[in-house]
Amino acid sequence: MDERNVHIAWGQDEGAALPLTLVLIALMMTLGGVVLMVGSIQYRFVRSDVHDAQARQLAEAGIYEAFARLHDNPHWRPADDTIELINDEAVSITVEPYGSYLWVEALAEAGRSQSTVRVIAGERPPLALERAVVQWDTQSSLNVAGTTSIVGDIVVGERGVVESTFKTERFVGEVDGTVYPVQGLAAPYFDTTAVSLVLAQYDAWARGATSSTPSTAEPGRYALVRARPSRLPVRRLASGYTLSAADSTWLNQPHRVVVAGNLTVQGPLRLPPLTHLLVRDTLVIQGAVSGDDLIGYAGRHLRASGPLSATAQLFSQDDLHLGAGVRLDYPSVVYVDGRAVDAQGRIHLEEDVVVNGMLMHPPQPARPQQAAARIRLAEGSLVRGAVYNGLETEVHGLILGHLWSYQFYFFETPTNYINWLKDVTIDVTQRPQAFALPPLFSPSPHLEVVRWAATDSARVSP
Amino acid sequence: MADTEGHTLLEVAVAIALFVTVAAPLGASVVYLQYERRVARDIQALAVAEAELEVALATRVGAGRSYWLEDRTWRVQLSVEHVDARIAYNVEVYHRRAITPIVTLRTLRWYPSATL
Q1: Which is more confident, A147 or B35?
Q2: Do A14 and B31 make contact, defined as CB atoms within 8 angstroms?
C-alpha cells in the first residue's frame, strides 16, 4: 500500500466518522428524549389520576349537597345548575324524576378532569312508617285470625287489635310487637304531587306530545353513559306492535318507546337499562323479558307474566296484573294511580310473584264504586319491602316488610270480612336493611342513594 | 496536515460519541428514575388519601375533628367541618419531610340531625 492509498483511506475514515457521530448523537438524543417524554407522560397520567379522584369526590359531594337542598325543598328541580359547596367549590347539579324516584346527577371538575356521578335517590322510611302494620280505618278494630303472624309494631285506630276466633277456628298465630291505638288516625303522609306530574308527563308522551322530547339520539355506548331519563332518544311504534328480539338492532341502547295504543313486549328479550315503555292503553309483557331500571307505563292496563326478571317501575292508571313467574328486584315499584278512572284502580299479584320493592295505590278522593278496586296478594306471592294502599288490601301471600293500608279485606262464603287478617304473615324484621321509599313520604325527605347509576370521567380542554 | 486533521476530527468524534453514548443515557436514566420515584410516590399518596377518606366516611368521623397521622413515609391530615348538617371532609397527604401536600381530596356528606 503506497502513501497515496493510505491517505485516501484516512480520507475515507474522516468522511465516515462525522456522519456516524452525528447519527449516533441524534439517536441517543432521541432515545434520551423518548425516555424523558415517557417519564413525563407517566407523571402526567398519575396527576390526572389525582385530578380524577378529586373530581369524583367533588361530584359525590354535589350529590349529597343536592340531598340537603331537596330536604329543605323536595320540589327543587335544577337542570345543570351550578351550586357552591360549603368549601367554595362548584358543582353542576341536575335533579329530575325517574319514575317515582329521583335522578340526581352531579358534574365536577378538578384540573383537566371532569367527573359525572349519577344516582337514583329514594327516601329513607320515616320513623312513623317503621311499623309492620298501619290500618287507618278507625271504624273498626283490626282482627287477626287463624295463623296470622305479625312481627313488628302495629298502629291502628282506638279500637285496637283483636285476636279473633274465625268461625270455630281459634287464633293460633302471634303478634310480636307493640300495638299503638291512635285516636283520629289519618293516612300516613304521602305527597302524590311529584308522582302525579310524572304520570301526567308519561301520559302526554304516550298520547304523542312532542314538546319536550329530544330530537337527537346519541349513538352507541356513549349514549348509555350519557343517558339521562329526559334525554332518551324517542322511538314511536304503531298501536298493536309486538316488541321482540327482532328489534334488538335499534334496541341495543335505551330508548323512550312511545305507543299511542297497545304494545306487547314478547320475550326472550333483554331490554337495555333505563328503557321507558310508555303506552297509552294496554302494555303486555310476556315471556322471558329482563332488564334493569326499566319504566313501564300504561294509560289503562298493564299485564306482565313470567318469566319476567327485572328491576322495574311499573305504572298504570287503571289496573296492574302480575302473573306467575314475575320477579321484580329491588328497587322496583308497582304503582296504580286509579284517580282518573271510575274503578279507581287495582293491583293483583298472582301466585309465584316476587316484588322486591313497593306496591303503591294512593288514597282516592272517594270510596270506590267497584269492589275489585284493591291490592290483592294471592297465596304464594311475596312482597319484600312495603305495601302502601289508600283502599283495601287483600293479603294471602307473604309480606317481609310493611303493610300500610286503609282497610283489609277477604271473602269467605258468604261474608266479606273487612279489617280482618287471616293466615297472613307480615315480618318487618325480614325487610332488607337497605330499603328506600319513593319520595315523598315526609314533607322533608331524608334522601339516600338507592343505586349508583353511573360514574364517568372525561378530559376537558385546557 | 491532512492526517493530523483526520486524527483530530476522529478523536473529537469519538469523544462526543463516548459522551453521548455514556453520559446522555445516564443523565436521561437519572431524570427518568426521578420521574418514576415521583410517580410511585404520588400513586401511593393517592391510595393513602383515598383509603383515609373512605375510612373517615365509613366511620362517620365526627365533625370538628382534625388530626394528623404520621408514619415513616407519610403525614396525613384529616379535617372535618360541620355546617348545617353537612360535613365537609378534607384529607391532605404529605411526604414526611414536605410542607406542601402531594394529594388533597375534599368531599361532603349530608346527615340530617336524626341520623347524627
Answers
A1: A147
A2: no
